[in-house]
Design brief:
Belongs to the tetrahydrofolate dehydrogenase/cyclohydrolase family. By secondary structure, this protein is α/β, with parallel strands linked by helices. Helix content is 43%, strand content 17%. It folds into 2 domains: 31-115, 3-Layer(aba) Sandwich (Rossmann fold); 141-268, NAD(P)-binding Rossmann-like Domain (Rossmann fold). Strands 1-11-8-7-5-6 form a 6-stranded parallel sheet. It has a 3-stranded parallel sheet with strand order 3-2-4, sandwiched between helices. Helix 1 (8-30) packs parallel to helix 10 (267-286). The structure holds NADPH dihydro-nicotinamide-adenine-dinucleotide phosphate. NADPH dihydro-nicotinamide-adenine-dinucleotide phosphate (NDP) binds at residues 142, 165-168, 170-172, 189-193, 196, 209-212, 230-233, 267-268, 271.
Amino acid sequence: MSAQLIDGKARAAALRAEVAQGVAAFTAAHGRAPGLTVVLVGDDPASAVYVGSKGKATREAGMVSGEYRLPADTAEADLLALIAQLNADPAVDGILVQMPLPRHIDSDRVIAAIDPAKDVDGLHPVNTGLLVSGRKGLVPCTPSGCMLLITEAMGNIAGAEAVVIGRSILVGKPMAALLTNASATVTLAHSRTRDLAAHVARADIVVAAVGIPNMVQGDWIKPGACVIDVGINRIALPDGKSRLIGDVDFAAAASRAGWITPVPGGVGPMTIACLLANTLAAAHARA
Ligand code: NDP
């Protein structure tokens, strides 16, 4: 392996410590700690784990953690009523509705109901618009975390060629906007892209957010590139156990890249750290 390994776990721990200091200062200045409330609808086990770890991280940062676990058959109107209640609650700075929602609930309507100033997931159309306009708003946590890792590895990325693979509203599109705002030249690739290998081959920065194990081949990577693997794929092993791998063929890519994130331990830990940072920023903006 010639690439430098980007230690997302260590970077996330440092960011969480920074946020905890900021939270202590906020609490001393305003007589209350910032609050993050997470809403989970249904009993998807993976979502329940995410919600649990978000609550734990929130408390560890010194913030107030609120949690609502609603049954899978919750009516959309009841969820919207809860969001209205949280929007009006002065102790709540951040609201996160865990996705995906059950099919009978319109997730666009739910996201649009969250006060944009409390939308710490950065998915409200107002925050999306601010991001695309290059103005200050709440930015989705995963691309925010990727951006920190990229700029800390590479420094100024103005003029760099960047390829983002995946165009979801959660990762790919905001990632492309952040890289554009930092003056990279951005290609946003997706399932209809022709000759993905050729796009990746000229990229100084590759961000893979697809959800297909090892789909980005090592020999596509431009020597010296910065490779950020957002993918989280659980692979069954012959012994009946399982393990997590990314969207990038790690071993082959690491022999050509300049920097690379591992899976797990790369982008994943940054997401929660950025959620905490967003909550503190939202608290300051509302104070
Ligand atoms: P989505 O399923 O919403 O989006 C996947 C994207 O990949 C789509 O835009 C799709 O294109 C594109 N795609 C699918 N097949 C191909 C292909 N063959 N070639 C090029 N592009 C393709 O996923 P998310 O963005 O939500 O998540 C992506 C991955 O990142 C998942 O593995 C997820 O688990 C992980 N993830 C990790 C996080 C973390 O904290 N580390 C946080 C969020 C997600 P099209 O639009 O044309 O269908």
